[in-house]
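FYI - complex with zinc ion, inputs then prediction.
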Amino acid sequence: TALETFVRGLPKAELHMHIEGSLEPELMFELAARNGVTLPFKTVDEIRAAYAFSNLQDFLDIYYQGAGVLLTAADFKDLALAYFRRLAADGGTHAEIFFDPQTHTDRGVAFETVIDGLVQGMEEAERTLGVTSKLILCFLRHLDEASAFATLEQAKPHLSRIAGVGLDSSEVGHPPAKFARVMQAARDLGLKVVAHAGEEGPPAYVWEAVDILAVDRIDHGNRALEDDCLTARLVQDGTTLTVCPLSNLKLCGVSDLKEHPLKRMLKLGLKATVNSDDPAYFGGYLLENYVQTAEAVGLTRDELVTLAKNSFTGSFLEEAEKTERV
Ligand code: ES4
Ligand code: ZN
């Protein structure tokens, strides 16, 4: 379609994508076979049929299970490269990807294996596709502070490869304040700080991300709109929100894409961006998120350009690059 061609032609950065969430069922089977791992599914269709979620936890349970096929550096490299190829096909030119080390170290895969494989994929993507990227290490918020600190310790020899830290996994019951000290320690190491907030959690969690963690971006942030004072604060600070429309739909944060707040966010003056979150699980990569949302809520060409520009101004690229690459 004309809309698709227009959006594909806009240079875009993706700022909210969990690399483990880009594991397509086909690659999951391939890696399971390669590694001698048994999956509780027999066919690709059977896996896709299991991807009907009613909330975040529902999804996380199956997402952590899928990640169990990732064992070697080559697996992580193949995973990353497959994602970068899809991104390039969508007209994406830069990505800041999340990875969840604890998901892997807790089942005996070394931190080095994960990061070495991902970095190999990132370097090959830059060389062969011209797609640049950065890594954001996410702490699993359903685990405790000590586990997050142990993970930060493991990251120390690799800080030149890591742009920032984030918080992901089960939000409700695990407010940002739980990780105040480890996020400060990460900032003291020179890392950027982001956090999922307001995906399922209340506005109070977004306030904590802003006031206690002093985040550089908010991941999701949808529920911030329930609090006018908080919304005004995010507008005033120019805080980038990494919004994930198809994720919100699949995890039932919105009942229909027509109800999605993206257009409202832009009209309020929030620095919203469009992202895919876990594209293999939520049924669409970056371009699909732009196009389906644009059709559902009626985004103008100007608004689409704004979203694409916001993805660079909100990125962790150097200031000069942000303006050169839009
Ligand atoms: C996630 Cl959609 C979402 N929310 C929180 N944590 C996550 N990890 C992977 N996808
Ligand atoms: Zn996410």
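The chain has one domain: 2-22+80-314. The pocket of 6-chloro-9H-purine (ligand 1) is lined by residues 18, 21, 56, 63, 168-169, 196, 199, 247, 277-278 (CB under 6 Å).
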